[in-house]
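Budget justification note: compute hours in this period were largely spent on complex prediction jobs such as the one shown. Inputs:
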Amino acid sequence: MTTARTVLTIAALTLREATRRRVLLALAVLTVLLLVLSAWGFSRLAAESLTSGEARLTASILLNLVMFGLSLIAALGTAFLAGPTLSGETESGIALAVLARPIRRSAFLLGKWLGLVVFGGGFVVLAGLAEVLVVGATVDYWPPEPAAALALLAAQTIVLLTLTVLLSTAISPMASGVVAVGLFCTTWVAGVVGGVGASLGNDAVGRVGSVSRVLLPTDGLWRGAMHAFQDPAALLEFGGGAEAGAFPFLSQAPLTVTYLAWAAVWVAMVWGLAAVAFARRDL
Amino acid sequence: MTAGPTAAGSAGLREAADLVAALPPGPAVWCSGLRKRYGKQQAVADVSLEVGRGEVVGLLGPNGAGKTSVIKMLLGLVRPDAGEVLLLGRPAADPAARARVGYLPELFRYQPWLSPIEVLTLHVRLSGIDVPAQEQRDCLALVGLADRAGDRLGGFSKGMQQRLGLAVALVAGPELVVLDEPTSALDPLGRVDVRDIVLALRSRGVAVLLNSHLIGEVERVCDRVVILDRGRVAASGSLDELLGQREVRLHLTDLPAGAAQRLASAGRVEREGDWFTVALAAGDPGAVVPDLVGDLVALGVRVHAVEPARISLEERLLGILRAGQGDHR
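Corresponding output:
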């Protein structure tokens, strides 16, 4: 009971920090900019005379591209919020008075994490939904599984911020943000490289993507989200099969349940590691 | 058949519970054999100390003596390598032991995006104790922040943040207050406020552990003092025990023969002109001094002034620390 109260109090505090520190404002401005730009782009697209197949393919690719932009904004936002909120507070001494209260450190950490999850997940879901609506209004394209796609996008953000939380129990606030975003981009690139390898029939290079997707599930979840955003016929339009795998803004296959379970286990494991590290830390 | 033993068992249990309830509550702080090493540096070598309920204990010692490390170990902020801690009678490993503990850290920083009243509300919630909003405001007023209750902390000076830290330590009805250098950022007025607050806490039966290097402050408010040096307890005791040596200064003229002898019988005498300082030998000073003055007057000595004096805590502290250094060389 008291632990739940602590978790909720700290989660609410983290959300308040995000709004008061103008992180929310910065994200909102960037998102509106991206939405307006994409709305303009899509409306220009609608003016072109494309076949319905071409239109769906282009809409799918562009939607995925914009969503990638959104997920990057979310990644940067949460990574640079998670760093300061944990290691920043322990460095500056704000955590001293708070953790001297009758609360468990794991409850404190869970509260911080939960606040960040609500913030990051809420942001990508809302911004993503807005983008889906923009696309629907401009080019009349509706993704096949918008809810699943948005959930996967949120899951990707959660994976990244869990990693940042772990990093920020060990290293400085700035470094944890930089390392997390760096790893996020690296896995994405590894995924693209793996796709190129697979399309060339090179198994060794193809495996790079699979291995990186297991180590850090952000790219795997992102590919799952793309698959749910894109038109099923788009891949065939693109040539289908292996060649499309080399293209970073189309995904060949939906996510397996096993992979989703792995992502959940990964989050639980990394969070547990963060909790152990944080509980042992001298403040 | 079964009711008998059960009834006897519950009666026994009740008896045991009554017995436990009748025990005096454990001390506010009790720790034994605390040790902490940071890399090669042995910050705390072996510290055992106790703060009784309602007692004000000062923690003194030079920089790097391990005072802040000891405080952080008491509050579960630093993991001791060895040793045991009880807070208000409960093992400190259980966070609930800190429910009635208030703490002002040496490094006081509070969420800059919150206002003072929001910080207090946060701490009240985390402490799990119900404190009415009015009491929280009273607490801010006590530290002189009543008219800044709604402003963001971002623009607060260090002194004002330290005042807020004091309010945070006091807000949730503590039975033990740990103050780590509570006046480091305060002006002289603020220091007087802190002294008054500590004295008020003592009068309400709240135990206080005060770490300060302002010896005068400690001397004025503390019942007992623990002196740390290089991670060990170098000395501890009540002020009377530590400053046991009492002196009396006398302004005397027209000394007849025999007066010097009478003075010497009371203790070692130092003379500066007409002023005599007598280091009183053992005995109740309450009886020794009047007897001495009475005898001197009877001898025909003209007594202009009698002033009690004793060595200051500062002199005693320096003496202990220098003796410790001597041992190490």
